[in-house]
Amino acid sequence: MLTVTFKGLWAHRRRLVGMLAAVVLGVGFLRQAVQSFDQTIVMVTHDPAAAAAADGVLFLSDGRIVGELREPTAEAVLDQLKAIGE
Fold first, then answer.
1. Inter-CA distances, 47 with 8, 36, 40, 67, 78, Å
2. Is the whole-model pTM more than 0.70?
3. Would you give the DSSP letter of residue 71?
4. How far are the Cα atoms of 13, 24, 49, 50 from residue 20, in angstroms, in the given order?
């Protein structure tokens, strides 16, 4: 019998989310969808590496746009997050 507790799931959440991000972003799934279907994808994340996969990043605080990056890098996203107090 396998018993999974919330605490056990929470402990592995970060690793599982990282693995999912690698699959979705790493293989270019979202990028291919954008290019193939000429669509816009809105992704909400606190992960600088995931945000860096986008063409542009908008930073929100209290429901307002407080920053923007074009052609973001993970380092630039992290710097911007630090600057706005995230």
1. 22, 25, 19, 16, 9
2. no
3. S
4. 10, 6, 13, 11
